[in-house]
């Protein structure tokens, strides 16, 4: 499992999940710590983690110590709140709580990206924009949010 961003120079930055949990370990192997890095651009310092990496201090501390100013948090699937068919690892209530705590600890706005749930969260852990599972992609095909990034690219760790 992994994530990718396109750097300002056009090259891809790809990172693999540091330590896949449970059944994922039978398919994917560990990533490397050197992939836990913030991408500095002229306007913002991007940080990315996926899924339950947001609850492991060995991963969150390394990212937050690099002074990210916008974080992308990805989960594979997140159904709506109180979904009785959701597995514990899919629960919106748990995954969103992890993301909001991360935003507060990093003091950085966060993009929550998941199948069936996408949102922008501010640095205080509060929702700015939400698209949930019951929303049709024809009704809302893309989620937008503006951030004032003045000076964020010059933040130093």
Descriptive notes:
- With 157 residues, the chain is an alpha/beta fold.
- It has a single domain (2-13, 23-144), classed as Nitrilase/N-carbamoyl-D-aminoacid amidohydrolase.
- Helix content is 15%, strand content 27%.
- The chain is built from two helices and eight strands, in the order ββββαβαβββ.
- The strands form two sheets. It has a six-stranded mixed beta sheet, with helices on one face. Strands 1-2 form a two-stranded antiparallel sheet.
- The chain is globular.
Find the CATH superfamily. Answer: Carbon-nitrogen hydrolase
Succession of helices and strands: EEEEHEHEEE
CATH class: Alpha Beta
Structural class label: alpha/beta
Beta-strand content: 25-35%
Task: Name the quaternary structure.
Answer: single chain
Biggest β-sheet description? 6 strands, mixed
In the sheet with the most strands, the strands line up as: 3-4-5-6-7-8
Overall shape: it is: globular
CATH fold-type name:
Nitrilase/N-carbamoyl-D-aminoacid amidohydrolase
Secondary structure: number of strands: 8
Please identify, by name, the CATH architecture. Answer: 4-Layer Sandwich
Helix content: 10-25%
Radius of gyration: 15 Å
Question: Which regions have little confidence, pLDDT < 50, spanning 5+ residues?
Answer: none
Cα(first) to Cα(last) distance is 27 Å
| Contiguous helical run count | 2
How many domain units? 1
**Taking all residues together, what is the mean pLDDT?**
86
């Amino acid at each position: 499992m992994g994530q990718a961003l396109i750097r300002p120079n056009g090259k891809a930055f790809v990172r693999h999940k540091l330590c896949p949990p449970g059944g994922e370990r039978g398919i994917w192997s560990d990533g490397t710590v050197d992939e836990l890095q913030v991408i500095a651009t002229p306007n913002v310092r991007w940080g990315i983690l996926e899924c339950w990496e947001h609850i492991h201090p060995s991963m969150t501390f390394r990212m937050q110590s690099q002074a990210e100013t916008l974080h992308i948090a990805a989960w594979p699937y997140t159904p709506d709140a109180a979904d009785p068919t959701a597995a514990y690892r899919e629960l919106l209530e748990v995954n969103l709580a992890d993301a909001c705590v991360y935003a507060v600890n990093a003091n950085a706005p966060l993009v929550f990206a998941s199948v069936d749930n996408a949102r922008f969260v501010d640095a205080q852990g509060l929702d700015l924009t939400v698209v949930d599972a019951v929303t049709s992609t024809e009704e809302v095909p893309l989620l937008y949010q503006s951030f004032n990034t003045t000076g964020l690219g010059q933040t130093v760790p």
